Amino acid sequence: MDLFFNELSIEGKKSINKDSAISLVKVYRSLRQYEITTCRIASEDNQKLHEMIQSMPDFLNIRNFYFAFFRSPYESENVEKEQNEYFEHEWRYNGKTCIGLPLAFILKSAALSICEADWCGAFVDVTKDGDVETVRNISTEQHVNTHIPQIQTSEEAELVESGLQIEDKKISLRDDHGIDVLMDFSKRLIRCPYVVGVLNSLPFNSHERKFIKKIRKEGLIEIVLPWTDKGYGVVVKTTGRTMDETERIGKIIMEKYGGV
User: Fold this and answer.
1) What is the pLDDT of residues 197-253, one digit of tens each?
2) How far is CA 149 from CA 113, 125, 154, 183, 231, in A?
3) Which end of the chain is more exposed for a tag (fewer CB within 10 A), N or C?
4) d(CA 212, CA 239)
5) Which has the closest alpha carbon to 143: 10, 36, 14?
6) In angstroms, how far is CA 238 from the centroid of its own chain?
7) Please, what is the angle between helix 18-33 and helix 141-156, to 10°?
8) Span 31-77, pLDDT tens digits
9) φ, ψ at 149 (rounded to 5°)
10) Cβ proximity of 241 and 256 under 8 Å
11) How far apart are CA 6 and CA 91, in angstroms?
12) Is 55 helix (H, G, I), strand (E, B) or coil?
């Protein structure tokens, strides 16, 4: 698991104070206890932050961990997998574009901020296309113990299988154009152990290019077959008990059934 540096926490600054630097050291030590050793940061912000810390009298105490902890650029294998989720939306904090906060949200991780001004709270609100999303924020030792156990517990939670035999899983589709295509797809889909059944057909989505159209908190997933001209789709009931579990199930479905 990687953290993502909140570049806005050093925006417009030429230095950081001693207490903020001490807090950063304590945060790093606390993260090590959870085997978290990396914070992703943009190259230019990495250079800027390093210059700020290098100018401090007790720089030698921080240098021991700085280069091991902060890794640039932001891009990593995990980020590349989710980069479309960032680029396809407008992310803002108080009207400013941002990178670290959205990546922390998208990757279900936490942002790392320098504990000064507005960045000493455990949560930060950003907007995604105008809608508010809450990001976990770490700038103190206490924040580490608040967020990391919850994140790691969520990551480790096992998905629940439906327990139903394939023949007992119901497929309910509208008697509409494309029902034969959707029925064939649904019969394959219900073989997934995390699928309870297919609840209904979706209205045509001829311009939809995403296989997973929408994930809903009730464990429901809206799926579109982008390889069909009309964009046929279905609503699937899964065993997901939370948004996180349903999103994980969605990824499994996409990997196994998202091709023609």
Assistant:
1) 999 999 988 788 889 999 988 899 999 999 998 889 999 999 998 888 899 899 999
2) 19, 21, 9, 43, 41
3) C
4) 16
5) 36
6) 20
7) 30
8) 999 999 999 999 999 999 988 888 776 666 677 778 889 988 887 77
9) -60, -40
10) no
11) 13
12) coil
- The letter for the amino acid at 78 is N
CA distances (Å), origin 137, targets 82, 128, 141: 20, 17, 11
Residues 6+ apart with CB under 8 A from 126: 91, 92, 93, 98, 101, 102, 105, 132, 133, 135
Find, among 53, 60, 63, the residue nearest to 15 by Cα.
Answer: 53
| Cα-based distances in Å from 205 to 211, 218, 233 | 11, 22, 8
The pTM of this model reads 0.61
